[in-house]
Amino acid sequence: MSKKAAAEFPNIDPAALAAGLDRDGYTIVPALLGADACRDLAALYDREELFRSRIVMARHAFGLGEYKYFRYPLPSVIQSLRETLYSHLVVTANRWCEWLGAEERYPATLVDYLAICHEAGQARPTPLILKYEAGGYNCLHQDLYGALAFPLQATILLSSPRDDFTGGEFLLVEQRPRAQSKGEVVALARGDAVIFAVNRRPVAGKRGFYRVALRHGVSRVHSGHRHTLGIIFHDAA
């Protein structure tokens, strides 16, 4: 990672990032973005020329709200976030592959990984902004868009809890083999990023590592407006 990228996002602690992901399957980067950056990103939602598609969740039984996928080229701050986060997360991604006995390994840079995605026919960008109003929610799901999937992703809260909205907590549910599912509410402040497993993560057991599946969603928004930025590293078919 370049010194410029490190200066842009100084609150990323690589050691804490890796430790949290290995322990819990998710971790929080506090204040990854400042308030002004969050407001500027949320305001992009109304600029139709920046997006390739708009999804109304209720039409697909995904929840209640909507989201838009950016088109290429991405806004510079989103491109920088995507490249910087990938450079930190790829070490954990490859370690998880090793622990789970998977043959796949991910290249050191996002540019090289996206080249693999595009060669496989996954060439549509996946970073997105999600918008919820009072009553809105997002059902538990996984962001898988084709055969290729980077095992980690990030969500950044662009709105301020209590000031801009109430309710709307980020949810994670871990589906453990031969056991009941475990749910967790992840409390975020504006500008915080939660980084979490896209699909599966390794958990240490008595006989080595085993896989658990994760799904994520958003609880019902009680009042106001809630915007988030999603950073997904694999592109879509």
Number of domain modules: 1
Can you count the helices?
5
Structural class: alpha+beta
Strand count:
14
> What is the helix content?
25-40%
In the predicted model, the low-confidence regions spanning at least 5 consecutive residues are 1-6
Name the CATH class. Answer: Mainly Beta
The CATH topology turns out to be Jelly Rolls
Reported CATH architecture:
Sandwich
Largest sheet: 8 strands, antiparallel
Radius of gyration based on Cα positions: 17 Å
Task: For the record, give the distance between the C-alpha atoms at the N and C termini, rounded to a whole number.
Answer: 28 Å
Instruction: Give the CATH H-level superfamily.
Output: q2cbj1_9rhob like domain
Task: List SSEs in N-to-C order.
Answer: HHEHEEEHHEEEEEEEEEE
Strand content: 25-35%
Average pLDDT value? 95
Rough shape?
globular
Quick structural summary:
The chain contains 5 helices and 14 strands. By secondary structure, it is of the alpha+beta class. It has a single domain, classed as Jelly Rolls (Sandwich).
Protein described:
By secondary structure, the protein is α+β, with helices and mostly antiparallel strands. It has helices at 3-8, 14-24, 35-43, 76-99, 110-119, and strands spanning 26-29, 51-56, 63-64, 66-70, 128-133, 137-141, 152-157, 165-167, 170-175, 182-186, 193-197, 200-205, 208-218, 221-232. The protein has one domain (3-232): Jelly Rolls. The chain has five helices and 14 strands. Helix 2 crosses helix 4. The two termini are 28 Å apart. A hairpin with a 6-residue loop joins strand 9 and strand 10. Strands 1, 2, 4, 5, 7, 8, 11 and 14 form an eight-stranded antiparallel β-sheet that branches.
